[in-house]
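Q: Could you fold this chain for me?
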Amino acid sequence: MNTPTPTAAVDHLDLLESHAIFILREVAAECERPVLLFSGGKDSAVLLHLAAKAFAPQRIPFPIMHVDTGHNFREVLEYRDQMAEHYQAQLLIAKVQDSIDQGRVPDPGPLGMRNRLQTVTLLDAINAHTFDAAFGGARRDEDKARAKERVLSFRDSFGQWDPRHQRPELWQLYQGKVNPGEHLRAFPLSDWTELDVWQYIQRENVPLPAIYFAHKRPVIKRNGMWLAAGEFVHPVPGEVIERHLVRYRTVGDASCTGAVLSSASTIADIITEISTTNVSERGATRADDKFSETAMEDRKREGYF
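A: Sure. Below is the predicted structure, expressed as structure tokens.
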């Protein structure tokens, strides 16, 4: 009697990885002109790593695109360029400043938040390049609006999302056909959690911008958040610049992304830290999500990623 050959155990990260790679390959096969949205944050870093795995040994068969608000952390911009070079990927940069100069969006001033202006810039870039699919690193555990969204999120000719008209995705079966004038957003990390992302980063040795790890930085306490004092954030009367050991749980504009007080300087430290928290990374550190209870959903309906 033959004894079955033992196989390596498949853990939950293997299952998440294989599902994400399946989505990347299916959308790339179904759509003519996909693009991968790359912010330089941890989720898009994992997504880029997965895309490289999905199509190895060939290069990633579609471009990556960053919607640059002009208020980004310098460390993140340097990292973005390094990763594009590392993966030999075509990097497209859609600039909010161009949208301002063209009168497409209002200028919020040198110190105003620009995150909410990204939608117009994104939709204009999608139309200009005739992309019919855009991969994003959004996860359902980030926000209740994102929890409503399917893995394949279809947008109408205006780039808008209607949560009441989504295609069913029973048993992980997807219908990727895009109707004329529409495009889809694909979210291969939908079922991942923040902890899953960090555990995968540790396992795969995915490089990240330095701001994710504890470092001393001048910060200002504003609306319950520690904002990086510098080019885009200056103290107003009643505020003082302090130096603290901080790190960032999410990447966005320096003008609206708060740091957390932390001494976690390694991935293992970060995994330990977030294993005990009960606040999502966006819940306490993104001012642009605090305008209303439905801030994220309102923006997604307009075309935000």
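A (continued): The first strand starts at residue 34 and ends at 37.
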